[in-house]
Amino acid sequence: MSTRTTSGKVLTVRGPVDPKTLGVTVTHEHLLIDLSVVFVDPGNEDGRKLADEKVRLDNLGWIRVNWSSNRDNLVQDDVDLATREAARFKSAGGGTLVDVTSIGIHRNPRALVEISRKARVNVVMGAGYYVAPAHPKDFSSRSVDSITDEIVRDVTLGVGDTGVRSGIIGEIGCSWPWTEDERKSVAAAVAAQRATGAPLLIHPGRDQNAPIQIVKFIEQEGGDLSRTVMSHVDIRVYDRAILRELASTGIYIEYDTFGLESPYPPHAPNTFMPSDYQRIQQLLGLIEDGYEDRLLVAHDNCTKHRLREFGGHGFDHIPTTVAVWMRRTGMSQAQIDKLLIENPRRILTFA
Ligand SMILES: [Zn+2]
Fold first, then answer.
1. What is the pLDDT of residue 240?
2. C-alpha–C-alpha distance, residues 51 and 63, integer Å
3. H helices then E strands: how many in the chain?
4. 20 to 30 A Cα–Cα from 106, which one of 38, 285, 316, 328?
């Protein structure tokens, strides 16, 4: 069969849809996830006690600072909770959630269909493999071709026997330094992008130079940068010159940790995280330089503490609050619509 059956459509977990129907879209989320792979031991006795507690109001202050050092916080496997959080996004005017939970962090196709149906939002599901520590044991012995075939199958036929198809390839995980297996994983993802016309989304390693290195590799492999998203740019690239170089390649630049005010996260000692104010300032700079057609925004919700029911900002923070702040900081409504509606629609539409 042809692997290009979805051309001109956006592929959601409930099937292909007309791109015009997406509405406000956040392009990097996790409705369900097990991110235990990033867990960091707090390194002292008090911390270890807190690491094993359930997320509660009386430890939430500690968890907000040490969110990758609490085990319960890193697992969100409650379908009903995810449905309620997605429904809040819908009530705030949201239309489409892109769930880029890839293999290794507990992708759950059937549950995503249920959430989409009950919360009445579009959900687009990811494909491919997360970072090396989350790879299955046999990954090193797999060939690029076999991984490519698996991704193509997920996009064209569906995951396993579920019939639920992936509408985006990613997030494809890379570390810094980049491992051989992760390079293989990206090569397979690029081959699958070429075969299917699906968008590709990369999680770069924690270094300012990681995104450019990956972009060069994708080009070498014959990938289409205008059909590719670089995630986490807000928590990777701080140098203006490097940011401009990255943007000039034609790739989509994703500012995807909106709402996460966590300057020094435990699992990432070599990076810091900006505030929403700084994210908006960086986006304004990129708009000024002419890249407004290549910018995307999201929350990358991947822990309990960021959900509304755990005192967090939820999936609706961007439509309810960030959009207002963008306006207040000087973005026009037309520019905001590009970031929230038009750019996601373009990148998600299959070639
Ligand atoms: Zn993510």
1. 92
2. 9
3. 13, 12
4. 316
What is the Cα–Cα distance from 195 to 331, expressed in whole angstroms?
Answer: 37
Question: 6: CA distance to ligand 1 center in Å?
Answer: 25
pLDDT in tens, 89-116: 999 999 999 999 999 999 999 999 999 9
Domain locations in the chain as residue ranges = 30-348
Q: Residue 4: its pLDDT value, please?
A: 81
Distance in Å, CA 301 to ligand 1 centroid:
7
Cα(101) to ligand 1 centroid in Å equals 7
Q: Hey, how many other C-beta atoms are within 10 angstroms of the C-beta on 100?
A: 31
Torsion of CA 99, 104, 105, 107, to 10 degrees: 50
**Distance (Å) from CA 148 to ligand 1 centroid:** 21
C-alpha span between 129 and 103 (Å, rounded) = 5
pLDDT given at position 214: 98
Q: Tell how far the Cα of 1 is from the centroid of ligand 1, in angstroms.
A: 32
Pair of tokens at residue 318: 């961007």
| 309-333 residue pLDDT tens | 999 999 999 999 999 999 999 999 9
CATH 2.30.30.100 fits 30-348, yes or no: no
Interval between CA 257 and ligand 1 midpoint (Å): 9
Q: Which residues pair with 12 in a beta bridge?
A: 15
Ligand 1 centre distance from Cα of residue 125 (Å):
12
Q: Which amino acid is at 317?
A: H
Percent of the chain with pLDDT over 70: 99
Q: How many whole angstroms from 332 Cα to the centroid of ligand 1?
A: 28
Distance 153 CA to ligand 1 centre (A): 22
Ligand 1 mean position, distance from CA 100 (Å)? 6
Q: How many Å apart are CA 71 and CA 247, to the nearest integer? A: 36
- Give distance in angstroms: CA of 30 to centre of ligand 1: 7
Q: Does the bond joining 344 to the residue before it have cis omega, within 30 degrees of 0?
A: no
Q: 3-class DSSP state for residue 141? A: helix
Q: What does the mean pLDDT of the chain come to?
A: 96
